[in-house]
Q: What sequence folds into this?
C-alpha cells in the first residue's frame, strides 16, 4: 500500500501544481512576467549569434548591418555568399526533417490558435540555426520570425514542465511570443496587441492582461538592462495642414491595393520554387543565388532593410533610386521567402511600405507648391503602417506599432486614417492575411483536446 502511494504521489503533485497555476490569477501574471524575461533573453541570444556571424564574415565590427557588410565585399563575394548560406541552411532543414520526428506545432501561431500549445524543442533549434545561416549570409528576410519562435518555444517548454492544460499552455506560449515581438521592435503595446488581434482574433482582458505583463518585462530587459535602441530612428513627424489628411487617405488607398499584389507575388514565388524537382538545399541555394545576383546591382538588397529604411527617412532620395531599390528588394524578398528560408516578412513589409510612401510623397511634392505639404519622410512613416495593416489585417496593432516607433502624437490622425483605409480595401480584395496559413485560415475548425473547455 505504501508503495502505491509513493508511485502516485508525483502525479497528484503535478495535478495540484497545474490546478494552482490555472486558478490563481496572481500566479499566472507572475509566470507571464517570467516568460517575458525568458523570451527577451532568447531573442538577445539570437541577435548576438547573428552579430557574431556578421563579424566573422566581415572580419571586424560592422556597425550598419548586412548592407554595410555587402558593400565591403567584392562583387563575386556578394554573388556567392547568399547561395552558400542558403545551401547550408537548406541542409540543416533537410536533415532535421529526416532525423527529427515532428512534435507539436511547427509555428507559434499554429500552436496558439489551432494547436495544443506544444512547440518542439529540436525542430525549433534546427530552424533557428538554419535561419542564422540564411540571414547571416544576406537573405532578404526579417529576423523577427525566428526570434519570436524561440521565445514561444521557451514558454512552451516551461508550460509542459508545469503540466499545464492546453488552454493555459497556449496562453503561456502567447506570453512568450509577445515577449519576442516586444524585444524585436521595442514596442510593448503593439507586441501585446499583435498576439491579441492577429493570433487570438479578439481583444479580451483574460488574454491581454498577461500578455501586457510579459511585454512590459521583455521591454525592460531589452531597453534598460541590455541597452537596445529603437529599430527605426524616426524623424519628427510634420503635419502641415488639416486638409493634408486627404493625401494620407490616398496613401491608404494605394497601400490597400498594393498589399494583396505583394502577397500574391510571394505566393507565386513559393509555388515556383516548389515546382522545382530538386532537394530543399538546392532550392534554397538557388534563392540565395538570385539575391546574390541582385546584390551585385545594388548591395542594399541584403538583410532586412533596417539601415536602408533609416536612410530613406533621414535623407532625400531621388524617386528613381527609391523605385529601383523597391523593385530589387521585392525580387530579393520573393526569392528568399519562396525558396524556403526561415525568417519573417514583417520587416520587409515595413520596407515596401516606406518605399511606397516615399514615392507617393515625392510625387505629391512635385504637384503642389513648396512648403504646403509634409516632408517625404512623413509619408514614408505612414506608408509603413498602412501597408502593414493591409497585409496583416490588424489595423490597431499597426497604428500602435508606428506610434511607438515615432513617439509622435501628430502621426496618429493620418496614420489611423491610412491604416483603416488600407485594411478595408485589402480585406475586400484578398480576405486572407499574410498569416492566414499559420492560423489555419479558420479557427472554428480546431479539434478540441479531450477534457478541454472550449
A:
Amino acid at each position: 500500500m505504501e508503495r502505491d502511494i509513493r508511485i502516485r504521489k508525483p502525479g497528484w503533485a503535478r495535478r495540484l501544481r497545474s490546478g494552482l497555476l490555472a486558478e490563481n490569477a496572481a500566479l499566472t501574471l507572475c509566470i507571464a512576467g517570467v516568460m517575458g524575461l525568458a523570451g527577451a533573453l532568447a531573442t538577445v541570444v539570437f541577435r548576438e549569434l547573428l552579430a557574431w556571424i556578421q563579424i566573422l564574415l566581415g572580419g571586424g565590427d560592422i556597425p550598419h548591418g548586412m548592407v554595410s557588410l555587402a558593400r565591403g565585399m567584392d562583387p563575386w563575394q556578394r554573388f556567392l555568399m547568399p547561395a552558400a548560406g542558403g545551401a547550408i541552411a537548406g541542409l540543416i532543414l533537410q536533415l532535421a526533417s529526416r532525423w527529427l520526428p515532428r512534435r507539436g506545432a511547427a509555428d507559434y501561431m499554429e500552436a496558439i490558435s489551432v494547436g495544443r500549445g506544444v512547440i518542439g524543442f529540436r525542430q525549433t533549434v534546427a530552424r533557428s540555426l538554419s535561419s542564422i545561416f540564411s540571414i547571416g549570409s544576406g537573405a532578404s528576410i526579417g529576423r523577427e520570425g525566428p526570434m519570436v519562435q524561440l521565445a514561444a518555444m521557451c514558454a512552451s517548454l516551461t508550460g509542459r514542465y508545469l503540466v499545464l492544460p492546453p488552454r493555459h499552455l497556449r496562453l503561456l506560449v502567447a506570453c512568450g511570443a509577445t515577449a519576442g515581438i516586444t524585444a524585436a521592435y521595442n514596442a510593448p503595446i503593439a507586441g501585446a496587441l499583435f498576439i491579441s488581434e492577429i493570433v487570438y482574433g479578439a481583444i479580451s482582458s483574460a488574454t491581454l492582461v498577461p500578455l501586457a505583463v510579459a511585454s512590459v518585462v521583455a521591454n525592460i530587459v531589452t531597453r534598460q538592462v541590455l541597452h537596445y535602441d529603437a529599430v527605426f530612428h524616426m524623424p519628427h513627424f510634420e503635419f502641415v495642414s488639416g486638409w493634408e489628411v486627404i493625401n494620407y487617405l490616398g496613401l491608404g488607398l494605394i497601400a490597400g491595393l498594393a498589399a494583396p499584389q505583394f502577397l500574391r507575388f510571394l505566393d507565386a514565388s513559393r509555388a515556383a520554387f516548389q515546382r522545382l524537382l530538386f532537394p530543399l538545399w538546392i532550392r534554397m541555394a538557388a534563392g540565395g543565388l538570385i539575391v546574390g545576383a541582385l546584390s551585385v546591382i545594388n548591395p542594399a538588397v541584403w538583410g532586412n532593410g533596417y539601415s536602408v529604411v533609416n536612410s530613406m527617412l533621414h535623407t532625400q532620395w531621388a524617386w528613381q533610386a527609391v523605385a529601383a531599390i523597391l523593385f530589387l528588394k521585392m525580387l530579393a524578398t520573393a526569392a528568399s521567402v519562396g525558396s524556403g528560408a526561415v525568417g519573417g516578412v514583417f520587416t520587409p513589409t515595413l520596407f515596401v511600405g516606406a518605399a511606397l510612401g516615399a514615392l507617393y510623397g515625392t510625387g505629391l511634392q512635385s504637384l503642389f507648391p513648396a512648403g504646403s505639404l509634409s516632408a517625404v519622410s512623413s509619408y514614408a512613416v505612414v506608408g509603413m503602417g498602412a501597408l502593414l495593416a493591409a497585409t496583416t489585417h490588424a489595423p490597431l496593432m499597426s497604428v500602435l506599432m508606428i506610434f511607438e516607433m515615432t513617439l509622435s502624437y501628430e502621426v496618429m490622425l493620418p496614420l489611423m486614417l491610412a491604416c483603416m483605409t488600407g485594411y478595408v480595401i485589402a480585406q475586400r480584395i484578398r480576405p486572407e492575411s499574410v498569416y492566414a496559413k499559420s492560423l489555419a485560415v479558420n479557427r472554428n475548425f480546431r479539434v478540441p483536446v479531450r477534457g478541454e473547455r472550449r
User: Anything to note?
Assistant: The two ends are 39 Å apart (CA to CA). The chain has 18 helices and no strands.
